[in-house]
Amino acid sequence: MTLLLAQMQAIPQSVDYVRILPELVLSIFGILVMVLDPLVDEEKSQKTLGYIGFIGTIAALLSTWYMAQSPGLAFSNIVRVDSFSIFFTCLVIAIAAVVILSSFEYMAVQRIRAGEYYALILFSVVGMVLMASAVELVMIFIGLEISSISTYILAGFRRHEASSSESSLKYFLLGSFATAFFLYGVALMFGATGSTNIDIISQKLQSGSVGLLVYAAMAMMFVGLGFKVAIAPFHIWTPDVYEGAPAPVVGFMSTAPKAAAFAVLLRVVFAINAPGRFWFLWVAAALSMTLGNVGALVQSNVKRLLAYSSIAHAGYLLVAFAMTTQENSATGISAAMFYTAAYAAMNVGAFAVVSHFANSGERFVNLEDYEGLGRSSPLLAATLTIFLLSLIGIPITGGFFAKFYVFSAALRADLVWLTLIGVVNSAIGAYYYLRIIVVMYMRESRKQVPVTPVPFGLATALAVSIFATLYLGILPNRILQLAQHSAQDLLPQPPAAAAQMPQPAPTSVH
């Protein structure tokens, strides 16, 4: 009998580890890269360690498929494997894989030793995956810190450039304030409900009266997460940090951490059913769209322009959060998830082009440097054009359907004015994206800008990004169906439905 009990206890424990298998795989490969870094010749380390990191992301994607066969809770109900967490896990790991591929040439051109760079990307993804799958606020905070510490260092990786050091320091200081706000909000929520588990908090808020402490807790957590997703008025750090950080890192920072933070925000807003969220999210969405697009209009640096664009797109995505009824909430969640995937594909690709074109020291990142690119490198210009058209929201690209789903969901929820603000801002945004296209194709180059051939790793990354952007624009149904199924997993079940679910029969051991 003792042996039988030991076996029964061992089975759930092994399932627990299966449910964090991607995190384990990513951690192992990150450690492997760090161990091999001093042992590999510096000239060969760029690609050798990079390929190890890339293999780590592929292994993590395969382990995610294996993990998906065992959905459920793990480690005393702090981690949940369901279609929602699997969606975001696959997304952030895929982003990391594409960024690693696009970094091979960049690290060699910039003469930066690569070992810790790839390890930090893998460790950062570990934190993001934890954020996507955690249903316990303290665990979410731990995942947020793991992700943030890695990205603070990555932002300053051009260590010989003063702007990169400034970028890292500014990101670290403001990020520390933001995570402190989030942690204080978690503490207040524990004081108000007696728990930090999202499911328990949701049940207590639905069954009892909502006190002032809950509103304060929600406000604090929104501030912390608002910084991570760069929504107004918590966006001030974004242009300076994006300008100074390495271009592939900016592509990573603008997509993967945002996807993980939006996953947390979806849990906080919809799973907890956050009280008083409507007007806060309405105002934040309108401000982010407007300030982001207006700020981008006056930029001559492409990285700063795309930074303000990132703020605007965070605003478009927030429109999907301002849903109030259960039916509208499911539509809003699926629209937000689809938008996150589409934005990741086009923005990672755009920054991959910028990183290749920037050359040593990132000397060529201004709009005037792109003059005549359509003649000097037609393929590179065409690739960037596809991503820019998707960012505008032109049909047959992922950006079109992303905006279409978000705005149509908002109209179904009677958010007419917010939708109108979004459409007007989309028109404003089209101007500065088309401005880059006009510079590439309709102006003669006034300076000699070297355009080197696209290496295999970068070409693969761009091909994957283009495929994803066009696939989401031409055949969006499959991903949208996955998002809709994930939305049902995220939303709390109504009490009547929960009561009708079959309960497990009680068991006893004699």
Describe this entry's structure for a reader:
The longest helix is centred in the C-terminal third of the chain and has 33 residues, at 326-358. The protein starts with a helix and ends in a 10-residue tail after the last helix. Helix content is 75%, strand content 1%. It has one domain. Mean pLDDT is 86; it is low at 1-11 and 496-510. The protein is globular and about 70 Å long. With 510 residues, the chain is an all-alpha fold. Strands 1-2 form a two-stranded antiparallel sheet.
Placed side by side, the strands forming the largest sheet appear as: 1-2
| Number of structural units classed as domains | 1
Distance between the termini: 9 Å
Number of H/I helices: 22
How do the helices and strands line up, and which of them pair or pack?
Elements: H1 2-18, H2 21-36, H3 42-67, E1 72-74, E2 79-81, H4 83-109, H5 115-133, H6 137-155, H7 162-193, H8 198-207, H9 212-228, H10 238-244, H11 247-253, H12 256-271, H13 277-297, H14 302-319, H15 326-358, H16 373-376, H17 378-392, H18 398-412, H19 416-442, H20 456-474, H21 477-490, H22 495-500
Helix pairs in contact: 2-3, 2-5, 3-4, 3-5, 4-5, 4-11, 4-12, 4-15, 4-20, 4-21, 5-6, 5-12, 6-7, 7-9, 7-10, 9-12, 10-14, 11-15, 12-15, 13-14, 13-19, 14-15, 14-19, 15-17, 15-18, 15-20, 15-21, 17-19, 18-19, 18-20
